[in-house]
Amino acid sequence: MLEITGLNVAYGGIQAVRSITFHVNEGEMVALIGANGAGKTSTLKAIARVLDAAGGDVHFAGQDITRLPAHEVLGRGIALVPEGRGVFPRLTVAENLAMGAFIRKDKAQIAQDLEQVYGHFPRLKERAGQLAGTLSGGEQQMLAIGRALMGRPKLLLLDEPSMGLAPLMVQKIFEVIQTVARQGMTILLVEQNAKLALEVSQRAYVMESGSISHTGDSAQLLTDPRVRAAYLGE
Amino acid sequence: MKHPLLHWLLRLPRHTAFLAVVGSALLLALPFVAILGGQAWVRILDLAILYVFLALGLNIVVGFAGLLDLGYIAFYAVGAYTWALLASPHFGLHLPFWVILPTGALLACLFGVLLGAPTLRLRGDYLAIVTLGFGEIIRIFLNNLNAPVNITNGPQGITLIDPVKFGAFSLSGRTEVFGYTLMGPQKYYFLLLALCVLVVFINYRLQHSRIGRAWQAIREDEIAAKAVGINTRNMKLLAFAMGASFGGIAGGVYAAMQGFVSPESFSLMESIMILAMVVLGGMGHIPGVILGALLLAILPEALRFGVVPIQQALFGKVLADPESLRMLIFGLALVLVMRFKPQGLWPSPERQRELTEGKS
To answer: Looking at domain A1-77+156-234, which of 3.40.50.300, 3.90.550.10, 3.10.310.10, 3.30.390.10 is its CATH number?
Structure first.
């Protein structure tokens, strides 16, 4: 479904992502793990077109989207949940969710999807009228995921959903991510929390200084001594 | 068969409808009351409404889209000079207002896009610096475009500019209506009021439209705005273009009303003044912006009238001239408002809530 070939991302002269190649199949949850600064977020941003790729190409559903304007990416079916959540702080929870459906016109369907998001995150329904900026970190992450789902994507790009959250909240959010995945959503998950990411995903790529160093089934990587030594703290 | 306006009024809660009617009546009666104090007071009223118009135009850029623009006066200048050049003896052109005003708006809009396009990637202070420079460039151009070909007549400005005319009916000079003598400023008052009502209406419609929501999203978080499918480039350009167009219209009316334009009317101080009106009133909140504009436009003028007699009475002579005192008091007022009501004098309910809730 998503094919990345020889992708390069550079900030000025510094190469953050060096010619990486990977793919995500339809219905799969794939994790991209690695240390801070390995180039995971840059990769995700380049796919969502928030950042320009310096080289290589990105194909989605058979189409080249490497040079697509960022605002057309969601229309093609890719939703990004940005790092640090990126909710609209001075809009209410309900307004944030409505904004997620900005490009859609099918009102009845939107209302239905809203109910589904509230079903995933009852907390959001309780706080529908509250300003997003006043939510806790975990609730903001829920909102960011909910907003992305409101765009009815085929592929969900999650950037560090566990960052800065209490363990209990992380657990809650990952339960929903797994539910969404079981319902057929294709997910590309970027995480620093390698153990968690490997536990929920089917396959994973390990990034190291801008390149992919290991790849394989998540279950396998979890037991791989090299991965365990480098990323699971053993 | 009811008139739609009447229908709308009848559907409002009783006290709101009452306020609307009384408010409109007061607004319509105002120039007849003000004239009792002399024509100068009507002129101050005219300028105050013009500033409301300008502040609401800037509010689109700063309040709605969150783009800090310190060169807004440039668009006002473009509008004013468009009118001045197309309706004065300077080039011997005397085009009617329905040609010049749209031309001025369009030209200002074009300049808005010209300023917006190269600054799309800038935000906050960086954008402010570039727009500030842009405003100055326009002013300096106006100041120097008298050689080798005399276009703007340089620092002397352009005089004898045509007033607004509807056929034979001129808005300047006096007109007899049912035995009552209407003065020029009074007639301009009604034109300005009409324009102002229009811009208030457009502001309200924009705020709650799809475009308004897109601007709000861009103001809040640009990356997230892109991620939900908003074309941030076009939306920012649209904000600049719309804000600039209103500036252009205001400039045109200003030139016609004053009959004279010169580059010194379009200084950086004016840009800052309009921005201060928006911020002081309550950024993005339409009633707040109107209040801010009225206060900052009228208070200094009122001071100008009050300062001399008060000093005469207290000290027997004038110690500080009104102009310098005006800026002093003005600055002090701004500092106090920012210290005690940082969200503006009349912020939107949401903004108010954010500042109180956010602390919990």
So the answer is: 3.40.50.300
Domains and CATH numbers, chain B: 37-286 (1.10.3470)
pLDDT at residue B359 above 50? no
pTM: 0.86
| Helix B4-11 / helix B14-34 crossing angle, nearest 10 deg | 120
A94 touches chain B (CB under 8 A): no
| Helix axes A107-120 and A167-182, enclosed angle (nearest 10) | 140
Q: Which residue has the higher pLDDT, B347 or B357?
A: B347
- For B117-129, the pLDDT digits (tens) are 998 888 888 999 9
ipTM of predicted complex: 0.87
Residue of chain B minimizing CA distance to A131: B354
The Cα of A119 is separated from the nearest Cα of chain B by a number of Å equal to: 21
Measured between beta carbons, the chain A residues lying within 8 angstroms of B223 are 50, 82, 86
**Start-end of CATH 3.40.50.300 domains in chain A:** 1-77+156-234
* Average predicted confidence (pLDDT) for chain B: 86
Find chain B residues with C-beta within 8 A of A102's C-beta: 210, 213-214, 217, 228-230
Which 27-56 residues of chain A touch chain B by CB within 8 A? 48-50
Do B228 and A86 count as a contact with CB atoms less than 8 A apart? no
Cis peptide before B148 (omega within 30 of 0): yes
Report the C-alpha gap between A169 and B111 in whole angstroms. 50
Out of A86, A133, A151, name the one closest to residue B229 (CB). Answer: A151
Q: How many CB atoms lie within 10 A of CB A178?
A: 15
Task: Determine the average pLDDT of the residues in B248-258.
Answer: 93
